[in-house]
């Protein structure tokens, strides 16, 4: 039995929609990314689509499944910094960060400090834009909470951090990778292989049946089918060499900005 993390947000739907709910080898635990990051780190689950940043914290212990990720090259549509003032004016002001994210929280810090030269104060809060705006001048939301907030057309600046990252680095950005503790390779290699195959099959099937997924997203959150088609057009769910180098660039910058205590070396399993 492999206990996997199930993420309920629409950006993850292409990986979960066709994954068997009932399977003798699978048990799933639903949570937001920071929940899975913590559960994988303390052994409550065996494998999950964790924040890329969390891989950077645990790279000595974890391996990454190849060909699976949540990435974009440019705009993402759901990693949004809502701000009462232009980004360049945030120096000394307060930014509220969602408590569901690790990658985007640190991406925000890199963009603000390293690329915009501004140093705000940070608060961590649940994803509620109105409450965040009572305590802060800007607010980071991710995933469905960001989409829902943007669909309300709030009266503020909205920055898409995938787009900001691309403009400054020319690189793709990887938000989530599927990771698991390397010790499982010696203990349960056959189970890992089967589950990896199930994940790849589920993703292929979803990408070949996107119309069905778009309908599901519309039922979940509203918006037009065109909106959802456009949203999923941004995403890349594999992890080819271009995406890997964007991921490396992000993790290297996290280290250089002292957000990580050492420079991660990315290790994949199975080896290609
Ligand atoms: C694209 C997204 O990426 C998510 C962002 C994450 C993070 O910031 O830690 C974690 C998992 C990803 O699925 C999103 O939430 O919109």
Short structural summary:
The protein contains eleven helices and eleven strands. The protein is α/β, with parallel strands linked by helices and 272 residues long. Helix 4 (103-115) links the parallel strand 6 (94-98) and strand 7.
What does this structure look like?
The protein is 44% helix and 22% strand. With 272 residues, the protein is an alpha/beta fold. It folds into 2 domains: 2-72 and 173-256, D-Maltodextrin-Binding Protein, domain 2; 79-169, Periplasmic binding protein-like II (D-Maltodextrin-Binding Protein, domain 2). A 5-stranded mixed beta sheet has the order 7-6-8-5-9, with helices on both faces. A 4-stranded antiparallel beta sheet has the order 3-10-4-11. Helix 4 (103-115) crosses helix 7 (161-169). The structure holds the ligand C=C(O[C@@H]1C=C(C(=O)O)C=C[C@H]1O)C(=O)O.
């Amino acid at each position: 039995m492999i206990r996997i993390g199930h993420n309920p947000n629409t950006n993850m739907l292409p990986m979960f929609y066709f994954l068997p709910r009932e399977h003798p080898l699978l048990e799933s635990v639903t949570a937001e990314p920071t929940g899975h990051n913590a559960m994988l780190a303390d052994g409550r689950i065996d494998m999950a689509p964790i924040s890329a940043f969390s891989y950077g914290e645990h790279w000595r212990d974890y391996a990454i499944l190849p060909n699976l990720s949540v990435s974009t090259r440019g705009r993402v549509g759901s990693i949004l910094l809502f701000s009462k003032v232009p980004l360049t004016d945030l120096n000394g002001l307060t930014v509220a960060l969602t408590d569901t994210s690790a990658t985007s929280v640190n991406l925000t810090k890199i963009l603000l400090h390293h690329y915009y030269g501004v140093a705000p104060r940070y608060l961590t809060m649940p994803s509620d834009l109105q409450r965040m705006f009572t305590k802060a001048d800007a607010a980071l939301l991710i995933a469905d909470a960001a989409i829902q907030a943007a669909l309300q057309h709030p009266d503020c600046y909205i920055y898409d951090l995938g787009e900001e990252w691309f403009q400054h680095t020319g690189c793709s950005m990887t938000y989530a990778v599927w990771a698991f503790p390397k010790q499982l390779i010696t203990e349960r290699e056959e189970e890992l292989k089967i589950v990896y195959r199930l994940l790849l099959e589920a993703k292929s099937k979803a990408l070949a049946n996107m119309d069905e997924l778009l309908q599901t997203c519309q039922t979940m959150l509203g918006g037009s089918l065109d909106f959802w088609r456009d949203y999923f057009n941004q995403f890349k769910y594999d992890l080819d060499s271009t995406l890997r180098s964007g991921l490396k660039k992000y993790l290297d910058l996290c280290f250089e900005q002292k957000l990580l205590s050492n420079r991660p070396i990315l290790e994949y399993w199975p080896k290609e």
